[in-house]
Design brief:
Mean pLDDT: 85
Number of strands: 0
CATH class: Mainly Alpha
CATH topology: Four Helix Bundle (Hemerythrin (Met), subunit A)
Low-confidence stretches: none
CATH architecture: Up-down Bundle
Order of helices and strands: HHHHH
Number of domains: 1
Structural class: mainly alpha
Helix content: over 70%
Distance between the termini: 42 Å
Shape: elongated
Bound molecules: fe (ii) ion
CATH superfamily: Hemerythrin-like
Length: about 150
Amino acid sequence: MAHLQWLDSYRIHIDMIDQQHLQLMRLINKLDDAVTGRDREAVGQVLNELTSAVLNHFEFEEKLMAETGHGHLKAHKKLHDRFTEKLVNFAHLFDGGECIIEEFHPFLLEWFARHIEEDKDYGVTAAAEMNAPSDKKPGWLRRTFGKKE
Ligand SMILES: [Fe+2]
Ligand SMILES: [Fe+2]
C-alpha cells in the first residue's frame, strides 16, 4: 500500500502538534510495512504503539484546547472519541485473531488527512495564545511552551 508523505499543508503551525502528527504518520507507514512483510507480531506491536501515540496526542490537544478556551472542545473531543473507539475495537479484533488490517489501513490513511483538517480549526486560536508573552499564558501553556521563548 502507498505510504503517506508529509506535506507542508499538513502543518497547523503549532510545532508540538505538527511533530505529533508527523509521528502518527510514521506509525501508520510502519504499520503498512508490517502488513506488507506479513509479520503478525510486528503488526500487533505497531498497533499498540499507534494506539498509545493517538491517545497521548488526543489528550494533549484537548488540554491545549481547554487552556486556550476553544469553543468547540466538546465537538472536537467527540471526533477523537469516535476514532479512539474504532482503533480500540480494531485492536481487539486483531488480538482475537481476525485479519482485517487490509480494510483498516485505508481507513487510517483517510482519517489522517481528515484529522489534520479538523485540527486546523483550533490551530489559529491556540497559536495566538501561545505567541502571547509568557506571563500572560495560562499555567499549562506556560509550562509546556514557555521554555521556547
Ligand atoms: Fe491532531
Ligand atoms: Fe484533534
